[in-house]
Design a protein that fits this description.
Layout lengths: L5 H30 L15 H6 L2 H32 L4 H16 L2 H11 L11 H25 L3 H9 L4 H12 L1 H17 L2 H6 L7 H10 L3 H31 L1
Length: 265
């Protein structure tokens, strides 16, 4: 820690817990407690049960979880592909060109996600590209929303690359494609992995744009949680929310292990 005195460290930890518990930990603990209860009429939940989780991992909930996973993986891969390509191409541009490219990719983040959903809905509801009513319009909207984060993560890593490795490979006769695949991309692997994890987590929790676009046969899990709580099924919705959090954390933990090995390499 940057604080070296004993009293300062205790103060820093106390401030951390004072801010962390009510703002971050307590809401998650409340959701966890609600997922294990059937009633909540007092200060604490009552009538603990695991029935909420039995319904949260089967039927419509399981299908919605699968939908969210497929959507998040597809959107993350597409965002990583386009964002990384733009970051690598933008590194060769001048300062003004890089700023314009960064602004273009950050535009979907600068506006509310519901506006992005509306834009995608209007743009792809008529021929020649008709995606409305299909799963692809949901995947496209998620890709548009998370590509900015992939681009920014990879772009920051590209600017920190030491050109010595590329110059050494080129001086030995390596073609540009070989330098890209065997030198630049392996060096960027930790940043690519971090960007993939961020895109996956954001896509798993996206709701606003999804509510405007999803067809009846492609309902992601956040939409199911919203509809459950909107009908008053708070305890069942809390259990589904815990399943969503646990699934996202498991995937991110797996990606973190890959990132650790990539960083060591």
């Amino acid at each position: 820690m940057l604080v070296h005195s004993r009293g300062g460290r205790w103060t820093a930890w106390a401030v951390f817990f004072v801010l962390f518990l009510p703002l971050f930990a307590l809401p998650l603990l409340v959701v966890l407690a609600a997922s294990l209860a059937t009633h909540w009429s007092g200060a604490f939940p009552s009538a603990p049960t695991a029935a909420n989780y039995s319904s949260a991992v089967r039927g419509d909930s399981l299908q919605a979880l699968t939908t969210s996973l497929v959507t998040a993986v597809a959107a993350s891969l597409l965002a990583l592909t386009f964002g990384s390509w733009a970051a690598l191409a933008g590194a060769a541009l001048k300062e003004r060109g890089r700023r314009a490219l960064d602004a273009l990719f950050m535009l979907p983040v600068a506006v509310p996600s519901v506006v992005v959903g509306l834009a995608v809905l209007v743009a792809f509801s008529k021929p020649p590209v008709l995606l409305n009513g299909t799963r692809w319009i949901v995947i496209l909207a998620h890709t548009v929303l998370v590509t900015a984060f992939a681009h920014q993560s990879v772009s920051a890593a590209v600017t920190r690359l030491d050109p010595m490795y590329e110059q050494a490979a080129a001086s030995l006769g390596a073609r540009p494609s070989y330098v890209l695949w065997r030198v630049r991309l392996p060096l960027l692997l930790p940043a690519l992995n971090a960007a993939a994890g961020l895109c996956f987590a954001l896509s798993m929790g996206e709701l606003s744009a999804t509510m405007m676009l999803y067809p009846p046969d492609w309902m992601p899990l956040p939409v199911l949680i919203f509809t459950a709580t909107d009908r008053g099924s708070l305890f069942a919705g809390s259990a589904v929310a815990v399943v969503l959090m646990a699934t996202t954390l498991l995937v991110l933990l797996g990606l973190s292990r890959i990132r650790t090995r990539a960083t060591f390499r």
